[in-house]
Every structure is written in C-alpha cells, then in structure tokens.
Specification:
It is a single chain. With about 180 residues, the protein is α+β, with helices and mostly antiparallel strands. About 30% of the residues lie in helices and about 25% in strands.
C-alpha cells in the first residue's frame, strides 16, 4: 500500500503517514489547493537550489504534480475524498517532514513559555513570505502548525494568498499579526 494512516483531511487535501514522513495530496482543480501547491513547490525548488528558507516552514522532501493514474485511483478508492475523481484529474503530491506534535496537543504551560518566541517567528515568516514569494500566509490555527522535538515552531498547512488579494485569512493564536 502506498498510504499508511490518514493523518488529516481538510479543505486543502489529505495527509497520510508515509515511511516515517507525511504525504499530502491535493486536487489541483481547486483554486486554494493550487495556491498552496504553488507555494510548496516554490519552497521545494528553492531548497533544491540550496537557497535558505525559514526554519519555521515544514521541510519538503519530494514534490510532484501530475494526474491521478489508474494505480493511484485504486489506492485512493475507499481511503480518500479524492477517490471520486476520475483518472487523469490534476493533483499535486508532496512528502514532508512528519511534525511530531500538533500545536493544540502541547501543554498550556509550554505554549505560554514560548508564546512571544512563536509570535515573533510567525511574524518573521509572514514578512519573508510576502517579500520573497509575493504570498501572504494565514489560517495558522492550532491544527495547522506544530512543534518539533527541539520546541521550534513549524508551519505545515497554511492558507496561501497572493499579495494584494483582498481575501486574507488572519493569523490566529500564536501568530496573531493582523494589526
């Protein structure tokens, strides 16, 4: 089997565990999915070229765009909301680091201890993303960010908008930066 366990499912696609990593698959017929896929493809390509990206972004190990093949369709059948998509439908798949702890699972005392540091990290990430990629990131609620074993913050499921788009999803909780 290609997919181990489903880790999550949302409006941007589905995430499965895969060989100790996380594998995300998204339907590219959806505009929001395309923006997120474009964003992570740019991050992946920057890293492949040796360019530095913020540590607070999830590490993308592999990235690919393509279409649902007959084999993938068989794997998705009964395991995914993408199983209704016909063979040939456009998708993106990326493999990323598996974040050990989702933010809403960490003790309140640790959140309070690192709150200022995490807020600064999110503010810096937002500024870097707008300046270097012409994207705004948001929707960073407790289930879209996590904590690595070294207590560093990691963003793995942001909502993406082009700078200037009037639809902006705000940073929530630790990442409250809309002033």
């Amino acid at each position: 089997e290609m997919f181990d366990t489903r880790l999550g499912s949302g409006s941007y696609g589905e995430v499965f565990s895969y060989n100790g990593k996380a594998l995300k698959i998204v339907d590219l017929e959806d505009a929001d999915n395309r923006l997120q896929a474009d964003f992570f493809e740019k991050i992946y390509l920057m890293n492949q070229k040796g360019m530095k990206t913020p540590d607070s972004l999830v590490k993308i190990i592999h990235y690919n765009r393509g279409t649902i093949t007959p084999e993938l369709s068989d794997e998705l059948e009964g395991n995914s909301k993408l199983d209704s998509k016909p063979v040939g439908s456009p998708i993106a798949i990326w493999v990323m680091e598996l974040v050990p702890t989702i933010y809403n699972q960490i003790p309140r005392s640790k959140r309070i201890e690192h709150e200022g540091e995490y807020r600064d990290e999110m503010r810096g990430l937002g500024n870097w993303t707008e300046k270097n990629l012409n994207y705004q990131i948001g929707d960073l609620h407790d289930e879209n960010i996590g904590i690595r074993e070294d207590d560093s913050l990691v963003v793995f499921d942001p909502h993406i908008n082009k700078v200037g788009n009037t639809r902006r999803y705000g940073f929530i909780h630790v990442a409250e930066t809309n002033e």
